[in-house]
């Protein structure tokens, strides 16, 4: 099973997992890492590498981060060459749920496309959508 690691600024990663569980139920092999004010980015890099190894049972790890170009993103980017990892930025709840649904059906290399597609499709102007 593909592991899922969520790395964000502040407690967003922990909170989105709790929100996901309200909708989708508890999921195995899903972990959160946070970067808070004053934290050392080098420590986050060590944690991402450790968690990625813990979550990877041979199928790889999908890392979801909140902000393109932010420290969590940059840390994940530095792991992409050496690890069995994919990463998508712009984390939202539809993206996370789709990754958790699809990780049983596709290879790690295909999972980013599902994340992107479902993350984007969950963003709508509601007035236009229902009007």
Notes on the structure:
The protein has six helices and four strands, in the order E-H-E-H-E-H-E-H-H-H. By secondary structure, the protein is α/β, with parallel strands linked by helices. It has one domain (3-130): Rossmann fold (3-Layer(aba) Sandwich). It has a four-stranded parallel beta sheet with strand order 2-1-3-4, sandwiched between helices. Helix 2 packs across helix 3. It is globular and about 50 Å long. The termini are far apart.
Q: Would you spell out the secondary-structure blueprint of this structure?
A:
Blueprint: E1 3-9, H1 12-24, E2 30-35, H2 41-55, E3 61-65, H3 71-79, E4 85-88, H4 93-102, H5 111-121, H6 126-130
Parallel strand pairs: 1-2, 1-3, 3-4
Helix pairs in contact: 2-3, 4-5
In short:
This protein is α/β, with parallel strands linked by helices.
Chain-averaged pLDDT: 97
Number of strands: 4
Number of helices: 6
State the secondary-structure class.
Answer: alpha/beta
Overall helicity: 40-55%
Strand order of the largest sheet: 2-1-3-4
**Number of individual domains:** 1
The CATH architecture is: 3-Layer(aba) Sandwich
Q: Give the overall silhouette.
A: globular
Find the CATH superfamily. Phosphotransferase system, mannose-type IIA component
- Between the first and last Cα atoms, what is the distance in angstroms? 41 Å
Q: What's the assembly state of these chains?
A: single chain
Give me the strand/helix succession. EHEHEHEHHH
The CATH class is identified as: Alpha Beta
The largest pleated sheet is described as: 4 strands, parallel
Low-confidence stretches: none
CATH topology: the name is Rossmann fold
Q: How large a portion of the residues is in β-strands, by DSSP E?
A: 15-25%
């Amino acid at each position: 099973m593909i592991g899922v690691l969520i790395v964000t600024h502040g407690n967003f990663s922990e909170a989105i997992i709790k929100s996901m569980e309200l909708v989708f139920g508890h999921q195995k092999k899903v972990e959160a890492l946070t970067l808070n004010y004053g934290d050392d980015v080098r420590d986050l890099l060590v944690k991402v590498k450790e968690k990625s190894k813990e979550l990877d049972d041979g199928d790889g790890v999908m890392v979801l981060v909140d902000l393109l170009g932010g420290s969590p993103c940059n840390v994940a980017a530095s792991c992409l060459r050496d690890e069995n990892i994919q990463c998508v930025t712009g984390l939202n709840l539809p993206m996370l749920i789709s990754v958790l649904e699809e990780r049983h059906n596709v290879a790690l290399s295909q999972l980013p496309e599902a994340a992107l597609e479902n993350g984007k499709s969950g963003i709508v102007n509601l007035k236009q959508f229902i009007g």
